[in-house]
Amino acid sequence: MHSLIWTIDDIETTSNMFVSEKLTQKLMQELSDALVVASCSLPPWCNELVYKYPCLFSLETRIDYFRATAFGKSRAVVWLQNRRDMIIEQSRGATTVNALPNMAGGRRDDHYPEYRIGRIKHERIKVPRDEDSLFEYAGRVMKFHAPRKSILEIEYIGEEGTGLGPTLEFYALVAAEFQKKALAMWICDDNDEDQSRTLDLGEGVKPPGYYIRRAGGLFPAATPAKTEESKRVSDLFHILGIFLAKVLQDGRLVDLPLSKPFLKLLVAPEVSEYPEVRLNNLLTLDDLEIIAPMRGNVLKALAKFIAGKRAIESNRSLNLLKKKEKLQELKVEINGTFCRVEDLSLTFAVNPSSSVFSYAELELIEKGADTNVTVDNVDSYLDNCIDFFLVDGIRNQIEAMRRGFDLVFPLKSLRLFTAEEVQKLLSGEQYPEWTREDVMNYTEPKLGYTKDSPGFLRFVDVLVGMNASERKSFLQFTTGCSSLPPGY
Fold first, then answer.
1. For the chain, which has fewer Cβ within 10 Å, the N-terminal or C-terminal residue?
2. Please, what's the b/e burial string for 183-214 (b: 16 or more CB within 10 A of its CB; e: otherwise)?
3. pTM of the model
4. Which residues form the HECT domain (predicted)?
């Protein structure tokens, strides 16, 4: 055991290392009981294990549990029927007959009675397509439909198309609207390198900087509390919460590149389980460096400086004079350059990173703009910066997002997933991959074409030769969504 502890860092771990086949089978047996699932009467141990020890179950199993329990009784019944249909379909396929008995809860086709209780009601709402009013109408639609358990369908005013296609397009267009830089919702810079090219997210080609595209993803921009700007942004995050919950509830996919730190907040119990969100110590400077590299880099350098400062101050072998000399010699290192704290010319005030934000300067303390950061108060400066960018400055936005999300289903239901898994549930596989064999196996030619037709084979060649960006565009054109669901 002693040697194992010392070598644990050298052991390669995978997400499936701790998955328990026996517990998975037992859980799926419970989910196979239609009466138990439909009446929301699963044994307490199911919730205990799935939420406290999600690593014991595969992502597929946890998605099944999520679908069966998070959305209420009517959705649970439909999930049961869809799962039954899937098992029957698989049992009819020659390639999966042998594998079926191994499925948790799987049964033979002839053991299933032909029953169908009903289907979820689809509610169709008409919205305008024009870009100027779409987002405003989308906000109204989300607020109106948030508490309803029916499936949202969209029809565009003046157009004949209905059903899945227009609905998927609506979700894609709203996701694009949320990424507009002018909304001032997210951290951004006026000179972001990631915004140096034109983009088309479904609303036509837009100029550089129109949308926020950052390597670290989208994260709420810190906003001064108790201002009109804070209220406006909080309202947008309220709608975003409803939107994200509807995406998950109806099984849609959207191209919305949320950052890992933001997704960490979504799955944190401190955000979803208390009357007021508790953001303290949830995110670190490493997270800040992901979402705001330059600012995070400077603050991490100051944190390293503070650690050195405290080491000197706590060194009992040094007298006061020696400590003072050591502190004067201590430097801040930023990208290989060393300097004194005072040489950074910092004050207890922060400026917005972009001109889209309404405030010009925010004082972290009273008269902060006139208070220089020195070796004596650098600790306080770092603490105030962390509080503003990762705690107090985003608290209203996160609380508003949670309130909106909870109108559809409880945000705490996401705790059985990791941040990366939630991103997959929302956006699917962001870099879709397929091989020639995949296309041949899962594509069925129609209208006189066969799998041996020269035209079809050329089509396959084109699909296989696409790069990642072209594949996303192809999926967007053919399905209304630029991603594939997890596992596809």
1. N
2. bbbbbbbeebeebeeebebbbeeeeebbbbbb
3. 0.82
4. 148-488
Question: To 5 degrees, how large is the angle CA 231–CA 233–CA 234?
Answer: 60
Tokens of 50: 């799935």
* pLDDT for the residue 101: 46
pLDDT value at position 104?
A: 43
For the chain, what's the residue count?
A: 488
Distance CA 110, CA 98 (A): 15
Interaxial angle between packed helices 293-313 and 320-329, expressed in degrees from 0 to 180 and rounded to the nearest 10: 160
Half-sphere exposure of 117 (CA within 13 A, CB side): 16
Please give the Cα distance from 174 to 195 (Å, whole number): 20
pLDDT at 4 over 90: no
Bridge pairing between strands 151-156 and 122-127:
parallel
Determine what percent of the chain falls in helix, strand and coil, rounding each to the nearest 5: 55, 5, 40
> What is the maximal distance between C-alpha atoms in the chain?
92
Say if residues 187 and 219 touch (Cβ distance below 8 Å): yes
Instruction: Give the pLDDT band (50/70/90) at residue 34.
Output: confident
449-455, long-range: CB < 8 A, 24+ apart? none
Check if the beta carbon of residue 159 is closer than 8 Å to that of residue 166. Answer: yes
Question: What domains are defined for the chain?
Answer: 2-111 (no CATH), 122-280+399-427 (3.90.1750.10), 286-392 (3.30.2160.10), 436-479 (no CATH)
Amino acid identity of 299?
L
pLDDT digits 0-9 by tens, 434-478: 788 888 887 888 888 888 888 888 888 888 888 877 877 787 777
Alpha-carbon dihedral angle through residues 70, 243, 121, 27, given to the nearest 10 degrees: -20
